[in-house]
């Protein structure tokens, strides 16, 4: 257990290249190429995190200024995903999430019940989060472990379903995102897209970055859009001219630099993806293999970033106007791209549709984050998390995700039966799409 905790404490920047290196060797990649792939992915991930930190350090103070300027009265602070991850892995139950998830992935692959080989091991903190929530609610350690296992099944089902849309829109062949904070929004986007297609007027509006640039010329360029959004946020924050211009340049820089870091990540991942695909084709000619990666690979897309930056003031407005909400969005405002990124391929890059869907999603999510606040605060205390002066904390990632509400709700109401019902649905979905759907449907 101590060795596992030491590995987790290394953080994603170190864990990911090590995991990529080991998987590359297992898949038959030469030692030199495996080392180069792991190092390239690690450097790309560091670069990506530096850009996200730039966005966080820019948007955080701006959000704080907006809160002070408009005198928002909300008593629960959103402490952000990094705190949520530390809290989730900081418990005895949470530290077991990685070996449980690795074991389930191996069994599912062995029996052909998933196409996803997940190398994004560090992000299993999301399933540790829900498991710890259910444990805090029921005081049943075994049920917490069972919740982790069932949540793993859910994210592999989502990963398999996501892959075609990811390939079609982002162009990432053999890549999918078993990311428990990002993938659930796909389930909302699919039915909403069908609704949008039937709304007169809305179904004719082209609002992709390409369409916007074609219509507005240089004003539609992603760099210019990022800069303009930074200006808008600076004005809403009440910044002076100097601070507003600095924020504008930083947000413009994020939209330019993030795709370049994603490209570097993909450069390191390509050999792994190719090696894995070749092995699967040789041993299982009728099966595909997807490499499961962090959805950070998608947040650099101009449509994702543009919609996410526009969602910053919208999210703060929702927090104020929604009756009963107590959560003040703060720590996760810069990570809104992770909540909405997998809506974008469903809407084919349409920023307007993404904004409408994200508004609905975040609005519901704020209520979920409010509801779990006492449990999340209890988890933080159990993990000896430094609460500073806060007495009530929550997070948008993963607090505002519908799967969190589902697990916590059914876990509270029905305990083992509720979590077991989710597990049966997820397992049945995996069996259907991997055993029947790709063979022309179930036998009659």
Polypeptide structure, described:
The chain is mainly alpha-helical and 444 residues long. It has one domain (2-439). The chain has 18 helices and six strands. It has helices at 2-9, 12-26, 31-70, 81-89, 97-110, 125-138, 141-170, 184-196, 209-216, 222-236, 241-283, 296-299, 302-321, 336-340, 351-371, 373-382, 402-414, 416-436, and strands at 76-78, 116-118, 175-176, 290-292, 327-328, 393-394. The strands form two sheets. It has a three-stranded parallel beta sheet with strand order 5-1-6. It has a three-stranded parallel beta sheet with strand order 2-4-3. α6 (125-138) packs parallel to α17 (402-414). Mean pLDDT is 85; it is low at 440-444. The chain crosses the membrane at residues 6-27, 34-59, 79-109, 143-163, 223-241, 289-322, 328-347, 354-372, 414-433. It comes from Lentibacillus salinarum. Its main location: membrane. It is a multi-pass membrane protein. It is found in: Cell membrane.
Summed up, the domain count is 1
Please report the total strand number as a whole number. 6
- Look at the structure and give the mean pLDDT: 85
Which term fits the overall shape?
globular
Question: Largest beta sheet, briefly?
Answer: 3 strands, parallel
Number of helices: 18
Rg = 21 Å
Provide the low-confidence segments as ranges. Answer: 440-444
Question: Roughly what fraction of the amino acids lie in strands?
Answer: under 5%
